[in-house]
Amino acid sequence: MLRIAAASIKYGLQHFQAPDVNLNQYSEKLTDNYATFITLEMNGHLRGCIGSLLAHRPLAEDISSNAYAAAFQDPRFSPLEQSEYENLDIHVSILSTPEKMEFDSEQSLLNQIQPGIDGLILTDDGHRATFLPSVWESLTSKELFLSELKQKAGLNKNHWSNTIQFEKYTTFSFGGKLREISKT
Fold first, then answer.
1. pTM
2. What proportions of the chain, in percent to the nearest 5, are helix, strand and coil?
């Protein structure tokens, strides 16, 4: 899976587009539908992160497409340059199916969140954002995690309404340095 992501980024640097994925060359598990996020880091800092919240295409395609998008289409960053490739760390997160959360207050919601385990999707009044479980590494309290997620969605950090919705999910995540992945 890491090689698929690395190959997609390398192809993008050479051809300025995402590669086509030939599903016939992969095992059955890589052709089943899964949702993934690809996170790119350089020198310990975020360099791109793009993903899918719902499984809608084969795993190999989702990884390839999201790796390309994280490298070249994340609006927070300029497109990746060739000189950056060797210094990238890549992380693949495979998401479970999001589960709608039931709560009657912000405190009720906070009581259900499992730090380090749960990723959250917030939806309210046309705003939507997610934090992967890996974000717990830098936002270690439930209250901070939630307030920063609200801000990421474009809402006030103290926002609360009767229409706010949350879903939670878990991930299976792994990663490595692109220069090492590309050699295998």
1. 0.91
2. 35, 25, 35
